[in-house]
């Protein structure tokens, strides 16, 4: 019976998102589902992954045994969330922006909102074009932070 | 009385504490992922190598227990270290239930301890990615886990880790890939990814809202679960779409985390992610909602005045950036989400950037709008199976109506927990019992789906569905008319999420009066009215063109919820074929339950 059901279900076709998480800039590939595939995507029980649990399977570029190395956290986070961060910087607020602030040593809510204000004011410097990649965004953010006394005072920039 | 009970439990506890580890205890069987077949044979779902120490371990829990005890506490020091560190959860179980002297043989497992220290997870959240809007097939969602490090509490929740169970493959494209995944050809495995990455896959790429159910697990229970996940690393399971899936796997590891907890049954046929959430509810402390990009856009759009919508439409058409400064901040923000949904094409990326640049010039607090959490969380929806009982009447003939529906959310079901105005049913039966006659199968479904989404000025999504099943014609109740068909068309909301109408083309094979399969195209129009979430109406007209004649069906249905899991439904159908006509009526109760 199960076989019949599964055969029927397969008629619907399915293809789902596949994301590969490595590290090292540019190695994170997230594919947007094409419209056609979305129409048929059957993801009731989850997507298909290409990544192993990764605990004993060694070290990738910026995580070891599945855990992101502390010094690579910013890189990994920006690589994955670069579009959302760009949007939230423009809005001057957001959960991802706050996470980025914490990763830059801005622990208090006052420090986080100073960080968010700075990213909004300096948006065009941090994200100078639609093509700005994650690594450039990180570098630009660092130099903007260094020039902003309020933020340097509130956040422990030294932790960079 | 309480003292008596307490004494009894202490006695029981003392008894179990002294007992030898039991190879047939649920705890040990769970650690081996053993299932018992109807012939009482055991077999494990784990496929990978190295998971069993006994050559017969995958079928014999007793042999595996003996081999594990021998390897861990048998005295061979090199083997001891390897076995103990390879199977931390098994070791924990043996130390807890076995003789005291084993404790002196405990080895240090530096690698795992270092890993656990870095991960530092003390809490677990069950995460439910809800139905993807225009896909009835995704109606029952997806579940995964979030491991919480207490150090991540202040603003770093996204840096926690997610544990996912999914089919695993190197291949990612093509029809075979889909087929293999659903038929269990691919192995399933657990994977761990940063949580921000995991929710991005679901909230952004697939447009699903995320519900987080914080579980009341103690740190040592979380530790036990992680011990077990480490044991499973590099091992695989059969991945079947219906049963050995993400939900089943996650329920199993929750059972391992808390010995004595029973969330799954021996022989599960369906395990649906939404049901996982319901089964785990006794463990839930708190519920949080994370909107998808799609929800951000929809909610924000619905609060914009008409003239702003008009400007956005013009922008969408012309991509002319000159008008950007005239947009309100609210409209700019809404548009940011809309464009983000569009993907990576250069044209959209450029527009997205222009919107962001303009938005950065406005104040961060100039919007008052706050995203609303939906009034019901998915666990408050009807359960995924239903039994139906009622009266059926056709002219003078009165019958008892009996039905069973599984993996079920139909077009009259309450719109909570599943895609609104959708239909998903995997295996359904409906029969008529008339006194003095045989019980007659009236309707059956192997599979029926329908996904609808309203078209808007911005988007023209297709509504679509498929059906494999059959229904007896009221003109000839003994004759089953089978069909395999698809539906494709558009839907429109006259009142957002309250009144929806669909026009669909029907294409496929239908059995005609002589029971020959014919290509009989047709049309279907339907309308839903939600008077309140509890009172729902569905009207439908369908016309099919057989080579020799036409068939017309009119339907009306009215559902009223008595409680969350109990519905009363009145259903009326008029059937016309070959200049004959029949009308039938039924009034039935639907009791929803967890299968």
Per-chain topology:
The complex is a heterodimer of chains A (160) and B (595).
Chain A: H1 2-10, E1 19-20, E2 29-30, H2 35-40, E3 63-64, E4 67-68, H3 73-91, H4 95-103, H5 109-121, H6 123-126, H7 134-147, H8 149-154
Helix pairs in contact in A: 3-4, 3-5, 3-7, 4-5
Chain B: H1 2-18, H2 26-32, E1 34-36, E2 42-44, H3 61-73, H4 77-86, H5 88-97, H6 110-119, E3 123-129, E4 142-148, E5 161-167, H7 175-183, E6 187-194, H8 195-205, E7 210-215, H9 219-232, E8 237-238, H10 246-257, H11 273-280, E9 284-290, H12 293-302, H13 306-318, H14 329-340, H15 346-360, E10 385-394, E11 397-405, E12 423-433, E13 440-451, E14 463-473, E15 476-495, E16 499-511, E17 517-519, E18 522-532, E19 535-545, E20 550-563, E21 566-577, E22 580-593
Helix pairs in contact in B: 3-4, 5-9, 9-10, 10-11, 12-14, 14-15
How would you describe the overall organization of this protein?
The complex is a heterodimer of chains A (160) and B (595). In chain A, 50% of the residues lie in helices and 5% in strands. Chain A has 160 residues and is mainly alpha-helical. The radius of gyration of chain A is 20 Å and the shape is globular. The termini of chain A are far apart. The model of chain A is unreliable at 1-62 (pLDDT under 50). With 595 residues, chain B is of the alpha+beta class. Chain B contains 15 helices and 22 strands. In chain B, the strands form three sheets. Chain B has a twelve-stranded antiparallel barrel with strand order 10-11-12-13-14-15-16-18-19-20-21-22. The longest helix of chain B is centred in the N-terminal third of the chain and has 17 residues, at 2-18. Chain B starts with a helix and ends with a strand. The chains are: A mainly alpha (160), B alpha+beta (595). Chains A and B meet through helix 1, strand 4, helix 3, helix 4 and helix 5 of A and helix 6, strand 5, helix 7, strand 6 and helix 8 of B.
């Amino acid at each position: 019976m199960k076989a019949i059901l599964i055969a029927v279900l397969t008629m619907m076709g399915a293809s789902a998102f596949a994301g590969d998480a490595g590290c090292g800039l540019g190695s994170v590939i997230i594919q947007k589902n094409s419209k056609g595939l979305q129409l048929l995507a059957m993801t009731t029980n989850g997507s298909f992954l290409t990544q192993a649990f990764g605990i004993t399977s060694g070290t990738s570029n910026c995580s070891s045994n599945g855990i992101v190395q502390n010094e690579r956290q910013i890189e990994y986070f920006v690589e994955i969330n670069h579009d959302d961060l760009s949007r939230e910087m423009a809005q001057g607020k957001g959960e991802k922006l706050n996470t980025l602030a914490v990763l830059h040593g801005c622990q208090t809510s006052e420090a986080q909102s100073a960080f968010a204000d700075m990213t909004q004011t300096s948006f065009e410097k941090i994200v100078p074009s639609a093509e700005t990649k994650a690594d450039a965004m990180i570098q630009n953010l660092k130099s903007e932070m260094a020039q902003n006394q309020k933020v340097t005072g509130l956040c422990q920039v030294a932790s960079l | 009385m309480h003292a008596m009970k307490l004494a009894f439990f202490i006695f029981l506890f003392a008894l179990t504490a002294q007992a030898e580890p039991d190879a047939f205890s649920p705890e040990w069987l769970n650690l081996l992922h053993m299932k018992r077949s109807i012939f009482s044979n055991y077999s494990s779902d784990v496929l990978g190598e190295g998971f069993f120490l006994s050559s017969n371990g995958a079928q014999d829990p007793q042999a595996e227990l003996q081999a594990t005890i021998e390897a861990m506490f048998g005295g061979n020091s090199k083997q001891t270290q390897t076995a103990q560190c390879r199977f931390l959860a098994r070791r924990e179980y043996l130390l807890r239930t076995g003789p005291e002297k084993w404790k002196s043989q405990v080895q240090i497992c530096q690698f795992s301890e270092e890993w656990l220290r870095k991960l530092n997870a003390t809490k677990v959240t069950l995460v439910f990615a809800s139905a993807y809007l225009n896909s009835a097939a995704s109606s029952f969602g997806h579940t995964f886990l979030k491991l919480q490090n207490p150090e991540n509490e202040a603003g770093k929740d996204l840096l926690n880790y997610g544990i996912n169970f999914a089919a695993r493959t190197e291949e990612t494209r093509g029809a075979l890939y889909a087929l293999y995944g659903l038929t269990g050809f691919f192995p399933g495995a657990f994977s761990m990814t940063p949580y921000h990455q995991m929710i991005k896959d679901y909230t952004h790429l697939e447009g699903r809202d995320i519900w987080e159910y914080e579980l009341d697990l103690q740190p040592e229970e979380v530790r036990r679960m992680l011990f077990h996940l480490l044991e499973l690393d590099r091992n695989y399971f059969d991945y079947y779409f219906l049963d050995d899936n993400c939900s089943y796997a996650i329920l199993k590891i929750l059972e391992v985390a808390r010995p004595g907890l029973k969330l799954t049954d021996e022989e599960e046929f369906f395990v649906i992610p939404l049901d996982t959430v319901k089964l785990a509810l006794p463990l839930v402390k708190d519920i949080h909602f994370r909107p998808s990009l799609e929800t951000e856009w929809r909610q924000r759009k619905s609060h914009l005045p008409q003239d702003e919508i008009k400007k956005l439409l013009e922008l969408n058409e012309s991509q002319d950036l000159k008008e950007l400064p005239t947009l309100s901040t609210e409209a700019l923000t809404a548009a940011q989400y809309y464009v983000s949904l569009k993907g990576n094409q250069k044209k959209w990326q450029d527009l997205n950037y222009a919107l962001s640049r303009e938005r950065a010039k406005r104040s961060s607090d100039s919007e008052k709008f706050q995203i609303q959490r939906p009034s019901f969380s998915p666990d408050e929806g009807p359960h995924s199976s239903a039994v139906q009982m009622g009266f059926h009447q056709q002219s003078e003939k009165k019958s008892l109506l009996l039905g069973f529906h599984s993996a079920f959310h139909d077009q009259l079901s309450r719109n909570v927990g599943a895609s609104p105005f959708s239909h998903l049913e995997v295996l359904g039966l409906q029969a008529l019992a008339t006194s003095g006659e045989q019980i007659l199968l009236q309707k059956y479904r192997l599979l029926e789906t329908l996904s609808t989404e309203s078209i808007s000025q911005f988007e023209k999504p297709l509504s679509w569905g498929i059906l494999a099943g059959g229904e007896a014609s009221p003109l000839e109740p003994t004759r089953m008319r089978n069909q395999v068909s698809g539906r494709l068309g558009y839907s429109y909301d006259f009142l957002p999420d309250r009144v929806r109408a669909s026009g669909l083309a029907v294409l496929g094979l239908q059995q005609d009066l002589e029971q020959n399969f014919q290509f009989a195209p047709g049309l279907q129009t339907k309308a839903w009215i939600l008077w309140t979430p509890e009172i729902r109406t569905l009207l439908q007209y369908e016309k099919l063109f057989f080579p020799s004649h036409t068939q017309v069906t009119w339907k009306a249905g009215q559902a009223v919820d008595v409680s969350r899991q109990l519905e009363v439904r009145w259903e009326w159908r008029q059937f016309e074929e070959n200049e004959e006509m029949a009308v039938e009526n039924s009034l039935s109760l639907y009791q929803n339950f967890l299968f």
